[in-house]
Design a protein that fits this description.
It is a single chain. By secondary structure, the protein is mostly beta strands. It folds into two domains: 73 residues, Immunoglobulin-like; 75 residues, no CATH class. The protein has two helices and 14 strands; from the N terminus they run αββββββββββββαββ. The strands form four sheets. Strands 8-11-12-13-14 form a five-stranded antiparallel sheet, with no helix packed on it. The longest helix has 10 residues. It is flat, with a radius of gyration of 27 Å. It starts with a helix and ends with a strand.
Length: 189
């Protein structure tokens, strides 16, 4: 009983206690210099434009770390990330997209497409028909395109797994009008 009373007396707090370990964390405002998306013809140099960062009114641009995977000799979509890390170790990042492309490609394959009647898949000697599913292609830059589903809607729309089963990707249209897969991604796998 004595132990219980002692605990009860020491475990209570009065209303005058204050939080003493609370901190306010500040993040910078960051703004890209130049455009959010930059087109770079294949073989020409990508010129870094940087960004501006302010933390509580102070210019901290010199503390921004730039990370880039731009290869100006290979067509594709690249990212340049600008990251500022505050004194508590929390970071803030903004991103610029760099499209390395062939400006001589003028053909545009962008649009909404429907899988034609009679399309089917054979797996384990079983034929599964799928048609009338929709796929969209979006032009990103001359000769560079984004496709909503490289598997023509089979898993996402046909089987019913939804958007997470759509195989999205980036395509390069070549000068002979052939397509080259640059990258692809499906979140379900």
């Amino acid at each position: 009983m004595l132990c219980l009373s002692s605990f009860a007396l020491t475990s209570c707090n009065d209303d005058n206690d204050e939080l003493t370990d609370a901190k306010v964390t500040y993040y910078p405002t960051m703004e890209l210099n130049g455009d959010e998306t930059v087109l770079v013809p294949i073989g020409t140099e990508y010129v870094e434009q940087g960004c501006k960062a302010l933390l509580r009114g102070e210019d901290v641009t010199n503390q921004v770390v730039i990370n880039s995977n731009v290869n100006n000799n290979v067509a594709g979509m690249y990212q340049v990330n600008y990251t500022f890390t505050n004194t508590e170790g929390y970071s803030n990042t903004i991103t610029r997209t760099v499209a390395v492309c062939d400006p001589t490609i003028t053909t545009d394959i962008a649009g909404n497409y429907t899988v034609q009647d009679g399309t089917y898949r054979i797996y384990n000697d079983k034929t599964s028909e799928f048609s009338k599913f929709s796929v969209s292609i979006k032009k990103l830059a001359p000769g560079l395109f984004y496709i909503s589903d490289l598997m023509a809607g089979y898993y996402g729309q046909g089987v019913g797994y939804g958007a997470q089963a759509e195989l999205t990707g980036y395509l390069q249209l070549m000068s002979d009008n052939s397509l080259k897969l640059l990258s692809s991604y499906v979140s379900a796998w």
